[in-house]
Each structure stands twice: as structure tokens, then as C-alpha cells.
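Hi F.,

I've been meaning to write this up properly since the lab meeting, where we talked about keeping a consistent format for the predictions we share between groups. The idea is simple: the sequence comes first, exactly as it goes in, then the C-alpha cells exactly as they come out, then a line or two of notes. No screenshots and no reformatting. I'm using this chain as the first example so we have something concrete to point to.
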Amino acid sequence: MKIDLEGKTALVTGGTGELGRVMVQTLAECGANVIVHFLHNEAKAEQLVREIEQFGVRGNAVQGDVTSAESVRQMARKVEREIGSPDIIVANAVVQIHPWQSVLDEDFEDYESQFKSCVMQSVYLAKAFIPSMIERGWGRYIAINTECAMEAAANSSAYVTGKRGLDGLVRTLAKEVGKHQVTVNQIAPGWTISDRYRAEPTNDEAYVATVPLNRRGTDQEIANVVAFIASDLSSYITGAYIPVCGGRIMPGI
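Output, unedited:
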């Protein structure tokens, strides 16, 4: 048994990012054609397209602002023209908040940006792409959440608020589109090792001490779960919030 995405097309938002790049490569290795979304880094997106085409799949780079309804509509029209409507959406892009601050100190604009990039991104993507999945009777919508949404640590309120809003949206969406065999799930990484950390390691001992598996996960381990949820092997999973954080966060029942 293997993950086989041959004949499927995936769109990864934030495809040039730290986790997005590995998701793009992994989906392509599994046989999917991949649309690499970017906001600013066109050169990196085009490089990724060239890399994944070596797997014998089609690649396409598309620019768009996922916090803008009109930009997502334009992106959808371009995608439809050039490679066809995607069967798999990975909503991975997010606006990063640094530094994190208490609710009393956080700027109003930070809450707005998180709402736009977490919640409204998925509203715009769903409206643009899920109708074609419904027509085909098959689709995968995968939202990238975070362990932070469940942890709700001090000084993370803007980020957590956006991601918890995302959780409510996609759980509802899962109930609405399930009858069409379109699944909607969330993957929630912990603090993940990516190329940025490999190049400039930081002290993570305190964090690792809170992880039952006693290590941090890797970008590849996140991408592996994305590929599984994108495949037919996950055909009876929908509405799930799946932590990929070594057991640091364990949803209750």
C-alpha cells in the first residue's frame, strides 16, 4: 500500500514557505500535479515548479493575496485556465505575528490580520474551489492549524484567535460538503524543524522537555500527514483536528 495521488491536482497556499515547500515536494512525489501559490517570492515558486516536474508531474506557480476575495478569484481563474481546478487544497499560508504580546499590548491590526489570513483565506478558497470538487464528487480541503490553538498560551492571543476561528469554520464546512465526498480536515503542527532552524539552530530544550516523544517534529513529518489526508487512504476521515506534535497536545474526548 502506498500514497498514490496520480491524476490529482493540488494547490498549496504559502507553497514557498518553510513547511509549504516540503508539502509541495511530497505531494508531487506521490504523483500529484501541484500549484505553488506565492505572495512575493516568485523566483522560489518557479524553482519549486522546476523541481517537482522532475517527478513527471505538472507544476504551476500562481501569485495571489489569500486575504483578498478578488485576488483569490483571479487566482482561481488563472489556475483553471492553465492547469485545471484542483482536487486538493492545502490552506497553509498565514500572516506571522512577531513579537507575540499580551492581549493588553497586542495591536488591533494583529487580530485583524490573523482573522483575514486564517479564517477568510479558507472562506475565499472554499468559495473558489469547492464547487468544482462537488461537481466531481471528490475533494480534499486541508487547513493547516497549530498546536497553539489548543494550548492557548499567554502572549499568543492574536494567532490563537485566528486559528480557533479557522477551526470553527472548517468543522462546519466538513458537515456541509461531506455528502459530496469532499472531506475537510485540519493538521496542527507543533514547533517544527525546517530549513530555517537547520541553518540557524535555536535552544529548544525547554520545548522538547514538554514533548512525550522527546524531540521536535520535522517538516517532512508534517508533509507526510498532508499527503495521507490528501489521499484515498483517508476517505472516511472528515472534520478532524490532527495534531502532529509528538503528543504535546492531545485532544480530549
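Notes:
Strands lie at 9-12, 33-38, 59-63, 88-91, 139-144, 182-189, 241-244.
Residues 167 and 186 are 8 Å apart (CA to CA).

If this format works for you, I'll send the rest the same way.

G.
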